[in-house]
TrEMBL record:
This is Mitochondrial carrier protein. Belongs to the mitochondrial carrier (TC 2.A.29) family. It is a multi-pass membrane protein. PROSITE patterns: SOLCAR (PS50920). InterPro entries: MCP_dom_sf, MCP_transmembrane. The keyword Transmembrane applies. It comes from Salix dunnii. The chain crosses the membrane at residues 30-51. One of its GO terms (cellular component) is membrane. The lineage of its organism: Eukaryota, Viridiplantae, Streptophyta, Embryophyta, Tracheophyta. It comes from the Eukaryota. Signal peptide: none annotated. SUPFAM superfamilies: Mitochondrial carrier. It is found in: Membrane. Keywords: Membrane, Transmembrane, Transmembrane helix, Transport.
Length: 357
C-alpha cells in the first residue's frame, strides 16, 4: 500500500515513496543485513534495559542516575552488559521471526481490508495493528527463554554490588549462580525443565502482543497526522508557487525530513505503548527473575503473588518502576528500529527485472 498524506487531488498532496511489500524484498539480503543492523541497535540500547530490569526487581524506588553510578562504581562498564551475549544470541532468530510475521501479515491484512472497502488510512492502521500482534507472538517463542536467562544474569549479584541498604535488597532472586548464558540454560532445564525457560510466557504474550499492536497502530496514525501537518506548513510557506502550478504539483520531502518524521512518530507511539503496558512488563520481569519460598524450597511466584508483593511494596505506583528507562529505551529502540527497518527494506528491495519476472 502506498502512503499519501492527503486524500484528495489538491496541491497539498505529499509525494512519499510507496511502501515496500514482502514480495518485493530480496529475502537473503533482508535477513543478513537485518541481523547485523539490529544487533548493533541492541548493543547500543542494552544498558538502558539493564537499568529498567534492576529497577523493576528492587523492592524500593531507585533513581536511574543513582543506580547507574552504583553499577559503574562497583561493576564498571561490564555491569551494563550482563547477559548481553545471551540476549544477542536470541536477537537474530527472534528478529527474523518478528520481521517475517510483520511483513507477511501487514501485506495480506492490508490487501484484505482494502478489498473489504476500508479507506487507505483505516486499512493501514488495521494492517499495522494485526502485524504488530502476530509478529510479537511469533518472536516470543524464541525470546522468552532468552529473556529469562539474560534477565537473571542482569540482576545476579546486584544485591552485593549495587545500592548498599537492606531496603534495596532483592527479596528472593534465584539462588542459583550462573557462569554464563549456556550455564544458565543448562541449570534452569535441570531444575525446572522446559517450563522453567518459558516462565512468564503467558504474561509476555499479554505484554508484548498488545504493546506491539498499540505501537504499530499508533505509529500508523501518527505518521499520517505528522505528514498532514508538514504538508499544511509546506503549502502555506509556498502558497504562491503552488497556485502557480494550477493545483497539479505537490510536496516531495527530502530523505532527512522522512527520517525525522519517522523518528517523531516512533517516539509518540512508544509513549502510548509504554504507559499502557508498563504494569504487565513489571509483573513479567518479576515472574521471570524472582522466586518465592514454600516449605524451605524455592518456588516460582504466581501472577497474584507478584501483584500482591508489588502493591505491598509501593502501591499501584510500584508497577511503574522503571517507566523512565523503559520509555527512553522504547523510544530510542523504536526510532532506530523504524528508521533502520525502512532503510533495510530499501536496501533489500529486488531490482525491477526480478520483480517483473
Amino acid at each position: 500500500m502506498s502512503l499519501s498524506a492527503a486524500e484528495d487531488n489538491s496541491a497539498s498532496e505529499i509525494h512519499i515513496p510507496a511502501d515496500i511489500d514482502w514480495h518485493m524484498l530480496d529475502k537473503s539480503k533482508f535477513f543478513f543485513f537485518g541481523a547485523a543492523l539490529f544487533s548493533g541497535v541492541s548493543a547500543a540500547l542494552y544498558p538502558i534495559v539493564v537499568l529498567k530490569t534492576r529497577q523493576q526487581v528492587f523492592p524500593t524506588q531507585i533513581s536511574s542516575l543513582k543506580l547507574s553510578l552504583s553499577i559503574m562504581n562497583h561493576e564498571g562498564v561490564r555491569g551494563f552488559y550482563r547477559g548481553f551475549g545471551t540476549s544477542l544470541m536470541g536477537t537474530i532468530p527472534a528478529r527474523a521471526l518478528y520481521m517475517t510475521a510483520l511483513e507477511i501479515t501487514k501485506s495480506s491484512v492490508g490487501t484484505a481490508t482494502v478489498r473489504l472497502g476500508c479507506s487507505d488510512t483505516t486499512a493501514t492502521a488495521i494492517a499495522n495493528a494485526a502485524a504488530g500482534l502476530s509478529s510479537a507472538m511469533a518472536a516470543q517463542l524464541v525470546w522468552t527463554p532468552i529473556d529469562v536467562v539474560s534477565q537473571r544474569l542482569m540482576v545476579q549479584d546486584c544485591n552485593a554490588s549495587s545500592i548498599k541498604s537492606s531496603k534495596n535488597m532483592i527479596p528472593s532472586s534465584s539462588s542459583c549462580r550462573y557462569v554464563n548464558g549456556i550455564d544458565g540454560f543448562r541449570k534452569i532445564l535441570n531444575a525446572d525443565g522446559p517450563r522453567g525457560l518459558y516462565r512468564g510466557f503467558g504474561i509476555s504474550i499479554l505484554t508484548y502482543a498488545p504493546s506491539n499492536a498499540v505501537w504499530w497502530a499508533s505509529y500508523s496514525v501518527a505518521h499520517r497526522l505528522v505528514w498532514g501537518c508538514v504538508g499544511c506548513y509546506a503549502n502555506k510557506k509556498d502558497e504562491k508557487a503552488v497556485n502557480g502550478c494550477g493545483g497539479g504539483c505537490g510536496y516531495t520531502p527530502s530523505s532527512k525530513e522522512m527520517v525525522a518524521v519517522q523518528g517523531v512518530c516512533a517516539a509518540m507511539a512508544s509513549g502510548v505503548s509504554a504507559m499502557i503496558t508498563m504494569p504487565l512488563d513489571t509483573i513479567k520481569t518479576r515472574l521471570q527473575v524472582l522466586d518465592g519460598e514454600e516449605n524451605g524450597r524455592a518456588r516460582p511466584l504466581t501472577v497474584m503473588q507478584t501483584v500482591k508483593n508489588l502493591v505491598k511494596e509501593g502501591g499501584f505506583a510500584a508497577c511503574y518502576r522503571g517507566l523512565g528507562p523503559r520509555w527512553v529505551s522504547m523510544a530510542l529502540s523504536a526510532t532506530t528500529m523504524i528508521t533502520t527497518y525502512e532503510f533495510l527494506k530499501r536496501l533489500s528491495t529486488k531490482n525491477r527485472e526480478s520483480l517483473t519476472s
